[in-house]
Design a protein that fits this description.
Catalytic activity: [phosphate](n) + H2O = [phosphate](n-1) + phosphate + H(+)
Number of helices: 19
Helix content: 40-55%
CATH class of the largest domain: Mainly Alpha
Enzyme class: hydrolase
Protein name: Exopolyphosphatase
CATH architecture of the largest domain: Orthogonal Bundle
EC number: 3.6.1.11
Main location: membrane
Length: 494
């Protein structure tokens, strides 16, 4: 039995979910949630206020005892739109990581959409046909079309109940004009995906998240819709009821929790825009969402079902990477890794990262051979790589950037300080593997021996390669490049 945990640092709410995984099933052990409204703490310059950070840290202090003792590989803490948008998110992340004793991963919008779909799909009955999943968050809204557990279209749009409350109801007034402006803003955001989504179509429209759950509860409480369903007619009645309150602080409806009341009108405006843009008549609610998706994704990690493997293979196909050569570089790099992993305290996560970097080290050649290591780093840092968090992508991009030419000390210094020693060591291993396979032979170069004493490396080639002039010349140059970066690589004579 595995004990798993997910923490979702949303723009409106933070959620903790603990579950046991046994015999292919998740058994929920504990759930915690709190309205932190992190997005409300973003100022016009995109900076999180100290008050918002304190709300976040106070919430995480309540979560911390629940995750005590859970293995690192069985726990993920993910941040969404507000942390993506905040220019000073690193400050909050550092403080939160110190409190939790675990890294926090900011995930891209489409990765958030993928995880939401995974959580919702597992919570729903196995309906044949396509599903549309809509998740209205505090800072973004995700749209996914998929079938069974496979998403086919993924999008994350910049509209959410907290962000729209700030934009359209900031002084607390609710009016027809303000509601309509918010709805039109949502329609405008949806214009970029409306045609593509409607052309693909769906059989089963489903909503997840607090806004849609609250809407379904209120409609049921008034007898305006069946249990767990939002209808177009019921939504129009709910919209009219909200306008009667005139102010956010007066909103009070059966089925609506008081801590959601002030952001509820903005959420309903977005939902009305979604119904209009996508031509919906009704939508049922699903309990599964991001945090459930994180747990199901954890179960599949480091298995053949790991979504990151599909992302790597997709990039190799899209950019025409020479997979035979990449495989040779990978085999050499992993042999070097295994010889120094103990001395350098490098674990399985580092080995996997090095493997992926070898697979993708030539991705930038699709743009230009000149400076292709720089092009490759840009592609990897800024692409939507499903399954990867932003810190993972940034680390992967650095390794590809560092695999040739002058060692990029400035780029290394720009990474989070705790990661720098590990990534510098992985970059050195990748560089040597690339050098050893420079001739692009049919088989990987294997059989050498690498030893580490601190950060000083000594490489001893087998007799087969000891007199290979190209390899020796390349390694001599690499030794000089590492020396210029303050590192030692010694080539043994025998």
């Amino acid at each position: 039995m595995l004990k798993l945990a997910a923490i979702d640092l949303g723009s409106n709410s933070f959620h903790l979910l603990l579950a046991n995984h046994q015999a292919g099933q998740l058994q929920v052990v504990a759930k915690q949630g709190e309205k932190v409204q992190l997005a409300a703490g973003l100022d016009e310059d995109g900076m999180l206020s100290e008050e918002a950070m304190e709300r976040a840290l106070n919430c995480l202090a309540q979560f911390a005892p629940f995750i005590d003792g859970i293995e690192a590989d069985h726990l993920r803490v993910v941040g969404t739109n507000a942390l993506r948008a905040a220019h000073n998110s690193e400050e909050l992340i550092e403080r939160a990581e110190a409190l939790l004793g675990h890294p926090i991963e900011i995930i891209a919008g489409r990765e958030e959409a993928r995880l939401i779909y995974l959580g919702a799909a597992h919570a729903l009955a196995d309906v044949h046909g396509k599903r549309l999943i809509v998740d209205i968050g505090g800072g973004s809204t995700e749209f996914i079309i998929g079938e069974q557990f496979e998403p086919q279209l993924l999008e994350s749009l910049h509209m959410g109940c907290v962000a729209y409350t700030k934009a359209f109801f900031q002084d607390g007034e609710i009016s027809e004009k303000r509601m309509r402006r918010a709805e039109l803003a949502a329609r405008s955001e949806l214009a970029s995906i409306q045609r593509t989504y409607r052309e693909m179509g769906w059989d089963d429209p489903v909503g997840s998240s607090g806004t849609i759950k609250a809407a379904a509860n209120v409609l049921e409480a008034h007898g305006w819709a069946p249990h767990g369903v939002v209808t177009r007619e019921g939504l129009h009645k709910l919209r009219a009821a909200l306008l009667e309150f005139k102010r956010l602080d007066k909103v009070s409806l059966p089925g609506l929790k008081s801590d959601r009341a002030t952001v509820f009108p903005a959420g309903i405006a977005i939902l009305c825009g979604v119904f209009e843009a996508l031509g919906l008549e009704q939508m049922r609610y699903s309990d599964g969402a991001l945090r459930e998706g994180v747990l199901f994704d954890l179960i599949g990690r480091n298995t053949p079902e790991d979504s990151r493997l599909s992302a790597i293979e997709s990039l190799q196909r899209r950019y025409g990477i020479d997979t035979r050569h990449a495989s040779n570089v990978r085999d050499t790099a992993l042999q070097l890794f295994d010889q120094v992993a103990g001395d350098w305290a490098l674990g399985a996560t580092s080995r996997q990262l090095l493997s992926w970097a070898a697979d993708l080290h030539e991705v930038g050649q699709a743009i230009s051979h000149s400076q292709f290591h720089r092009h490759g780093a840009y592609l990897l840092e800024h692409s939507d790589l499903l399954g990867f968090s932003r810190p993972e992508q940034r680390a992967l991009a650095f390794l590809v950037r560092a695999h040739r030419r002058k060692f990029p000390k400035n780029e290394l210094a720009a990474l989070p300080e705790p990661q720098q020693p590990r990534l510098a060591r992985l970059a050195r291993l990748l560089r040597m593997a690339v050098m050893l396979n420079h001739s692009r032979s049919e088989a990987p170069v294997l059989g050498m021996h690498l030893s580490a004493e601190g950060d000083d490396l000594t490489l001893n080639l087998t007799e087969e390669y000891r007199d290979h002039s190209l390899i020796n010349d390349d390694l001599s140059q690499e030794s000089e490049l590492q020396k210029a970066a303050g590192m030692t690589l010694t080539l043994a004579d025998s």
